[in-house]
Design a protein that fits this description.
The protein has about 300 residues and is mainly alpha-helical. The protein folds into two domains: about 1-95, DNA polymerase, domain 1; about 110-290, hpI Integrase, Chain A. The protein has twelve helices and three strands. It has a three-stranded antiparallel beta sheet with strand order 1-2-3, with no helix packed on it. Helix 6 (about 125-140) crosses helix 10. The longest helix is centred in the last third of the chain and has 21 residues, at about 270-290. The chain is elongated, with a radius of gyration of 27 Å.
């Protein structure tokens, strides 16, 4: 049977996981049942119209666009295999557009909560507390990725010009300006490091523990979760959330979209534009609550 041959191809030639093979088997089986119930013939004879009808039925039954997209992906893989093996002449699934996915807005931490973090947070005593705070301020103050943070060397910091040199994706370098407060914090931290950890060279990692060992990826992730948990109960609390927070707060304070794109190291503007949805949504709520015909209570004109 063609479906069994395809599943064997996934398992033994493509070396897909057991879970992936099981999911494809389930999705293809569901489509096959649909064909049988509607007298549409064997799966090899299905048309693009048949596939669209099946997908519409799934969505009418309440299945999400994400789930239906996964099932369509299973069909596309199957029909590619069927065409290559000569079982079908055309791939009907190639003529079917995937359902549009709802846009997922990046999660970020509110500005007041970030202020609370840096103004009221109880940091550990001594060198480690200073290290942890610098780590958080670098992530929030620059919007850099976790890998970029871990890759920072002492030589990448220019205290004189107030800039950081970051090595981003595809080994693309970019320069990020940093404010006077962060410049001062880095300078103070390096002086403390020399006293506590010992001498260091420009090629050494910028963020190291008391034994001069560079901070580990898992350690940074764990610490970010810990410190953000003190100011927010939102589910996502990660270094990437701080990147989202940086971008959102920059735009909320009037930063140019292209400038934020350069600071984040995005290849194209589309990746940066997703942050504008958060600011637009915030303005929408302000309008709804403040405008007399915005849907909220509006302004009480009796007091004017």
């Amino acid at each position: 049977m063609l479906i069994d041959r395809y599943l064997d191809h996934l398992a033994f030639e493509k070396r897909c996981s057991v879970h992936t093979v099981a999911a494809y088997k389930r999705d293809l089986g569901q489509f096959q049942v649909f064909l049988e119930r509607n007298g549409a013939g064997p799966i090899e004879q299905a048309t693009d119209r048949t596939i669209r009808t099946w997908m519409m039925g799934l969505m009418e039954d309440g299945q999400s666009a994400r789930s239906v997209n996964r099932k369509l992906s299973a069909l596309r893989g199957f029909y590619r295999f069927a065409r290559v093996t000569g079982s079908v002449a055309v791939e009907p699934s190639a003529l079917v557009d995937a359902p549009r996915m709802p846009k997922r807005l990046p999660e970020f931490v509110e500005e007041q909560r970030m202020n609370t973090l840096f103004e009221s947070q109880a940091w550990p005593e001594g060198y480690l507390g200073d290290l942890h705070r610098l780590m958080m301020e670098l992530l929030y103050g620059t919007g850099m990725r976790l890998a970029e943070l871990l890759g920072l060397k002492v030589a990448d910091v220019s205290l004189r010009t107030g800039t950081l040199k970051v090595l981003g994706k595809r080994n693309k370098e970019r320069i990020i300006p940093i404010g006077p407060q962060l410049v001062s914090r880095i300078a103070d931290h390096l002086r403390l490091r020399e006293q506590v950890v010992g001498p260091f060279s420009p090629s050494d990692a910028l963020l190291v523990d008391e034994k001069a060992k560079p901070m580990a990826r898992r350690s940074v992730q764990r610490l970010v979760v810990h410190y953000l948990s003190g100011v927010t109960s939102q589910q996502k609390r990660s270094p990437h959330v701080l990147r989202h927070t940086f971008a959102t707060h920059m735009l909320e304070h009037g930063a140019d979209l292209n400038a934020v794109k350069e600071l984040l190291g995005h290849a194209g503007l589309a990746a940066t534009q997703v942050y504008t949805h958060n600011t637009v949504e915030k303005l929408r709520k302000v309008h709804a609550n403040a405008h007399p015909r915005g849907g909220g209570q509006g302004i009480n004109n009796d007091n004017h």
